[in-house]
Amino acid sequence: MTVSGSDTVSKAAFALCRQVVAAGTRPRVQALLNDLHISEYGDGRHGRGGFGYYASKLGGQFAGYVALDSVRPRLNPTIGALPPITDEERALLVQAHREIVALNAACVGGLAGLQPGLSEAVDPYSGVPADTLRPAESAMPLQDVLLNEAFVRRAADAFQGSALCEGVSRVPSEIRNAFGPAKLKAVVEQLDKTIRSPDVGKHSDELTAIAFQTPHQFPPRIALTYQAALVGVRSALRILDQLVFQAFQVDRLPAVNSDNLIDIKGPSSSVAERVVLVTIQPTLEIAHPKPGEVVFLEHPHLPKSFHGLAEIVGTRYQMSRETGSLINLTLHLVDDNLNPSPLYHSLAREN
Amino acid sequence: MPDIRWIRTETPEAEQWRQLGQYRYSPNVRRYLAERGLIPAAAGIEDYVSGSIGQAEAYYNAAKVAPLDISPLLLYYGTTSLLSGAAALMRGHPLPIDNHGMAVSAPAGVTRMSDVEVVVRNTRGSGLHELAGIYGNSPHLPGQSKWTVGELLASLPDLKDDVQLCIPEATPFALRLDTVRKGSFELERILLTEFGMGEINTTLARVVGFSGAYLRPQHVADAIVLYRKINGIPISTESLSGQTVLLVGHDKGGTLNTPGQVLTVLMALFALGSVSRYNPTLWHPFVRTDATGERLLIERFLSLVIRWLPNLVLSAITHEWTRFTSQTLERPRGLETLTEDDLRSMIKETVSETRTSR
Fold first, then answer.
1. Bridge-partner residues for B228, per DSSP?
2. B240 phi-psi bin (left φ>0, alpha ψ -120 to 50, beta other)
3. What's the ipTM?
4. pLDDT digits (tens, 9 = 90+) for B31-48
5. What pLDDT does residue B1 have?
6. What DSSP assignment string belongs to A276-290?
7. Of the four, A156, B6, B152, B310, which is 20 to 30 A from B112 by CA?
8. Best of A284, A321, A323 to disrupt the B interface by mutation (most B CBs within 10 Å)?
9. Cβ contacts (< 8 Å) between B185 and chain A: which residues?
10. Is the dihedral of CA A259, A265, A271, A273 positive or negative?
11. CA-CA-CA-CA torsion for A50, A55, A57, A62, nearest 10 degrees?
12. Among A172, A261, A157, A262, which Cα is nearest to A221's?
């Protein structure tokens, strides 16, 4: 497996994912994740599917599993006893999460020093209580490394060379310093939440007005551009983490294509999103998609510019005796920098 | 599918022959040929077309009142005349036919008409082969392939219920579909009872073009649900009476063949006509003393042919689905004329007015 020099973030991410799939350490992780989603074994024994179910609902890839396990005593009165996991399994989940956190830190790199609080603002896990992600030290020894260092380095280099990171670096310090750490984190999280909602279109008029009707050097526009760049970095890290997590689970990214597509509405673009609404028939590959998961979208009906990675931001399941099962997905297209929103580029353009 | 042309009449059988009868007049034949760029046509084409259609009508009228002893043979002759005449009209020249292109085989011990076999002979001048090029789904059927009367009748969707009553073990060769509209797309449902004793996935795998047209079938309580692939090639067809169906292919020598309804009728009529003419030892007891109920199936088949085969040929000639109805034209009132766009606009206006009044 070769490690290449300069390339796009998505190419480097795919290379890292292929390394994960091929790694000898993967089967243990894959087996554990599968086992934590089995509700009942074939011989009738109870499985530990309850643990996997709640961990998935928490989101955040391995963080969900680690956080859930560490708050186990607090949850007991509400949802009852969670299925147990062994110390070895806990160590494996913790290590997987820590390696992804290290991947994120490598990608952010020098940006962290630009401003206090920037690391927290772009951290995809900033919404998870920190104490839940630091479980007590385990007596288990460290496992073999799960993410190959060379491929992590390649992803980090591509990330730091991306337009998003360069955009963050170029923002004048007086604009950056207008945000204190707490405020920076709050505005970035809020803008991220807005962009990721299925009805981001409601806000597109205001964002369009700023992008097309204000001068490029207008300070409020620069401030919003800065926030959009940080949201872009945060989102790209989130997508990168999700791709790596999915690589532990399955050999190939699930595809939305002619084998499962029933209907397509769109695509459509605005300053904040490139969105496609699809209706698919559930398949073995895409049986229960959830917001936050990444799929590969491809169909001759769509323009080529809308082929590629897409993040699921909304799902609706329909089931009936009359018409069978359908799933409606709202998808945001992801660019080569793994950014699911064109907002930064819309604002950074010179009018 | 082609557009539907509705013709109002109280007597569809008579009206379809009246429509076909216009091609018994030379000026109409010449105009048809000219409109399709088939001039200059073969010498004598007008007499060929006119004579063929006239004979066909005479044979069909005779078959309607003749006993079962001879009605299949009359219908076979009428059908070959009609198909040949219409083909000559559509091509601008008679087809080079000088033999049936088929033979009949009644294996020893056979007592049921359903077990009589048609053997395809793709020889030079084969009528079946030449007509398949115009009316069939496949350009030709494999030479020496054998087709039982039972499987041919089971390939006609409008006979399906009668076939299943008489031959419960028959393989399903036609699957009737219900189309359901769901928002901006449609789906199709096949009731599980359509599959009879056949295995569902095996049967669907024999529908030519199925995987290119539909996503993987979903099994619900009483049906199979099919969603069409976007940009998939439509493969459903309509039965003689307008029911949407999927035709299941016949495996002959390792290839799947779907003859289409016109060829299926022709082959079944040939078998019955030949047996009635050349095998009275088999035919006479069947007509006089059938105790299985198969006679009802054959009679239903023949009445279906009398009503629908001329209709199919008329549709082929005009390139429109010709349908007859006895409903009279009523002046449209109010809601019947509203389109989907009209309804959407009305709903938007109402919602907007409601918001404003609040």
1. B214
2. alpha
3. 0.84
4. 999 999 998 888 899 999
5. 54
6. EEEEE---SSSSS--
7. B310
8. A323
9. 262-263, 279
10. negative
11. -150
12. A172
